[in-house]
Amino acid sequence: MQVHKFTFNAFQENTYIVADEANNCVIIDPGCYTAEERRELFDFIEKNALQPLAVLNTHAHIDHILGNAAVIEKYAIPFYMHQEDLTTLRAVAGYAHLYGFEGYIPSPEPTSYIEDGQILSFGDIHFTVIFGPGHAPGHVAFYSPEENFVINGDILFRGSFGRTDLPGGDFETLRNTLLNIMFKLPEETVVYSGHGPETTIGFEKKNNSIYQF
């Protein structure tokens, strides 16, 4: 599998396209808000002759779902998310304008809900769902043990971790997710985060600021 990263919107959110050798792909956390951002994503898909099969959300904070509606409408594809983040998803329409996103088009409701331990398969793209709440109540990560990477949204950042002061956040829950779930993955696992650069589980076990609390 190939992982392609795009950084969108005022929050500098990382959107990912994961593709297999047959050019099937999934789009994870489409944060593309402006017409230019959407064009960048769509042009990449067209240029590389990719076939989108699904939209996946790690969680439903505004910066990770700004492009949901546009992507789902353009490609007529299903949308997967954990049910515990449905309230988070629905709330965005009520506050998007406060962040300057006056033109926000509300995300469709999920086509399917996903659960911890579930195996998702799209062509030759396979993920194990990891339920990792704390930053958001229905937060998940998409783990590929065969390819040694995880797309983990805002659970874990290089040297840091997701904030817990937003509605539905809880520090102790996130701390448990980090220490007892994420840090149990193999140390060579590459972590693709919702903001900032990539890291590895091994680096974070030695350097993450969670140990200061």
Automatic annotation (TrEMBL):
The coiled-coil regions, if any, are none
Q: What is this protein called?
A: MBL fold metallo-hydrolase
Which organism is this entry from? Answer: Wandonia haliotis
Pfam families under this entry?
Answer: Lactamase_B (PF00753)
Domain annotation Metallo-beta-lactamase: ranges: 12-195
Question: Any idea which UniProt keywords this protein has?
Answer: Hydrolase, Metal-binding, Zinc
The source's domain of life comes to: Bacteria
- List, alphabetically, the Gene3D superfamilies matched: Ribonuclease Z/Hydroxyacylglutathione hydrolase-like
CDD domains in alphabetical order: metallo-hydrolase-like_MBL-fold
Question: Which co-factor is required?
Answer: Zn(2+)
